[in-house]
Amino acid sequence: MKITKSEFGVTSSGETVNLFHMENNSGAYIDILDFGARIHKLVVPNRDGELTDVCLSVATMADYEADRAYYGAVCGRVANRICKGKFTLNGVDYQLAINNDPNHLHGGLIGYSHKIWKSIIKDDKLILTMDSPDGEENYPGNLSLSVTYSWSEDNEIGILYEATCDQDTLINVTNHTYFNLNGEGNTSILNHELFIDADAITPADLSLIPTGELLPVEGTPFDFRTLHAIGQFIDSDYPALANCGTYDHNFVINGTGLREAAVLQSKDSGIRVTCFTDQPGIQIYVAAQESASLGKYGEHYPSFASVCLETQHFPDSINHENFPSIVLKAGEAFRSKTLYHFSNI
């Protein structure tokens, strides 16, 4: 496996953004940007051996700076939503930016998705690091975060997140890659088949903030414990789905430790991706709207053209005592791993 570095573009403030090309001996590869630690391309063989780019993204730095879909990005300090941007930690009340009215989403006005990270290439891995100062986006503590990307000879992406902070703070990071296993921009993903090892979801209100309940998936459109098409029940009038109009829900993954959480596959291309994580939840997001900007090959992405498999803690965890905690204690270490393994069916 080899890693090469090249210039991708320049930001509006004159900073250089680099692209890291990670290619294995079969020719399959991923391209990572140090802007937002983003996956820009993800190219794997279909069943006929043809290399296929299976992730959505945009073409230029201007597009990435304007992007609010978080294409391929690492989102933080807290990914997903915090209700009305409010939380209390150690008796102190905090108010975060409201950038997903009426809530806080993916770290705020300028989250980690829109920052340039420092880079190191070491032992066939790409290590991206950044320091988030105390008070940035009104989060407490000086946080140091690293994201290590690996790419194996058998087409597996490894994402290792590691963080420390000098004060108690919150952390919930994820990768926001949009998948289309037929090739990005190709077709709807509603015929993609999905399996999720989850017996429950965290149902949410109309603004996608969890109610605090755990809703069993049995007998609902959220039961993906048997592999079936994403679109099979997407038009259901079941309230928890109909209120959203698409899947944008957190599933409570069974078990603990690094384990298989989900499988996504396309019978058309023959490509399968298996997701492993040590996180308690996975947000399944099927983008129901057309993209606001052109994709990297110059086309508009249509409705239902992608699905995200965002491994993470539950949305608004800090405001629900019964949810797994996202508090990182001062001086302690946060460490989490997610794997996406690509194969053929």
The H-and-E topology, N to C, reads as EEEEEHEEEEEEEEEEEEEEEEHEEEEEEE
Write the CATH fold name.
Beta-galactosidase, Chain A, domain 5
Q: How would a crystallographer describe the biggest sheet?
A: 9 strands, antiparallel
CATH architecture: Distorted Sandwich
What is the number of helices? 2
Distance between the termini: 24 Å
Neighbour order of strands in the largest sheet: 11-12-13-14-28-24-23-18-21
Explain this structure.
Strands 11-12-13-14-28-24-23-18-21 form a nine-stranded antiparallel beta sheet, with no helix packed on it. A six-stranded antiparallel beta sheet has the order 17-26-25-22-19-20, with no helix packed on it. It has a five-stranded antiparallel beta sheet with strand order 1-2-3-4-5, with no helix packed on it. It is mainly beta. It is 3% helix and 41% strand. The protein has two helices and 28 strands. It has a single domain (2-344), classed as Beta-galactosidase, Chain A, domain 5 (Distorted Sandwich). The chain is globular and about 60 Å long.
